[in-house]
Design brief:
Layout: H1 9-27, H2 92-122, H3 131-134, E1 144-145, E2 154-155, H4 158-177, H5 208-239, H6 243-252, H7 259-265
Antiparallel strand pairs: 1-2
Helix pairs in contact: 2-5
């Protein structure tokens, strides 16, 4: 065995310097913390939302029996089930016009269907709760009380009502058709059908995926409401009753009070 040689003075000093430098090098090491924030980008125009109801794999009007949809129906827009037997959507400009018309009528139909059934359900002090007779109350001596309550809206002049509707609705529709743009720059870059921003105070359209689903729900319920309004018109002509009264009559005796029975026994009267 060889005895350990003593370290020289220079080697001893070198080791001491390394021990002193090491902590300093560690102390200069810094930790970087990266914070990420999730942002949701607005979908660009022409893009297809990532949803069951959009794109080439969307549900079609007859399911697996639908066949291949027309090439111009790509599933880009809400409510596209691949059905256009008359070719009404073949021209892009015509398709855009029809689509706007459908959405506007769907919204009015949903409001109209609700307005037809609510007064009949409430009943109470409403003199004429049936929807096709309610408006005639304005010609009565006491005028028309909204929902039978004179403290809400009391109308006695059909001229004043008509003037207010023409002015207010005309201005609102002109504002919408002009792209919601008014002097001063308000409303620029807003969509004619889905403006959002100030017209969405609840923030329902903040998330693109949720917004895409709500568009589908709106058009589906709107189409159902348009059929409902058509049914209300036919019922009023055939039975002379409101939808709630007709429903109650049918539930009480479904074998007799049904559309087939009325169709076979209906005789128009002058």
């Amino acid at each position: 065995l060889h005895p350990r040689r003593p370290l020289s003075q220079s080697a001893t000093m070198s080791m001491m310097m390394k021990k002193q430098v090491a902590p300093a090098a560690v102390s200069r090491r810094s930790t970087v913390v990266v914070q990420a924030r999730r942002t949701v980008a607005k979908p660009s125009k022409g893009s297809t939302p990532d949803s069951l109801w959009y794109g080439p794999d969307r549900p079609l009007y007859l399911g697996a029996l639908s066949g291949e949809p027309p090439s111009y129906l790509t599933g880009e827009f809400p409510g596209d089930y691949g059905w256009d037997s008359a070719g009404l959507s073949a021209d892009p400009e015509t398709f855009a016009a029809y689509r706007e018309t459908e959405v506007i009528h769907a919204r009015w139909a949903m409001l109209g269907a609700l307005g037809c059934v609510v007064p009949e359900i409430i009943g109470g002090d409403i003199a004429e709760p049936v929807w096709f007779k309610a408006g005639s109350q304005i010609f009565a001596e006491g005028g028309l009380d909204y929902l039978g309550n004179p403290s809400l809206i009391h109308a006695q002049s059909i001229i004043a009502i008509l003037a207010c509707q023409v002015i207010l609705m005309g201005q609102a529709e002109a504002f919408r058709s002009a792209g919601y743009v008014v002097p001063g720059g308000f409303g620029e870059d807003l969509d004619n059908l889905y403006p959002g921003d100030a017209f969405d105070p609840l923030g329902l359209a903040d998330d693109p995926d949720t917004f895409a689903e709500l568009k589908v729900k709106e058009i589906k319920n709107g189409r159902l409401a348009m059929f409902s309004m058509f049914g209300f018109y036919v019922q009023a002509i055939v039975t002379g009753k409101g939808p709630i009264d007709n429903w109650a009559t049918h539930v009480a005796d479904p074998n007799t009070a049904n559309a087939f029975a009325y169709a076979t026994k209906f005789t128009p009267t002058a």
